[in-house]
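Lab manual, section 2.4: Encoding a predicted structure.

Procedure: take the sequence of the chain (78 residues), apply the prediction step described in section 2.3, and record the output as structure tokens. A sample record is shown.
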Amino acid sequence: MKTNSSAALPGETPAVYPADEAIGFREVYALLGLKCKTGHTALNFARAGKIRAIRINARTIRYSKNSVLALIAGKQAT
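Recorded output:
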């Protein structure tokens, strides 16, 4: 767990944020309950701004697990 101590005021406990994890498109589909064999759907979600993409290199893209969970909860990725 990461803490954000700069945002805490004196006498307050710092906010605790769960660490984000980079996951592949198969894990995105497992979380969303989709059955796809290629990464096109996850890439389209990222291009539409629904989930956050993390480009590792020219061929490899991972996705933010927190943004996928936010999509499931009905929130927009930032």
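Check your result against the sample. The CA atoms of residues 67 and 77 lie 5 Å apart.
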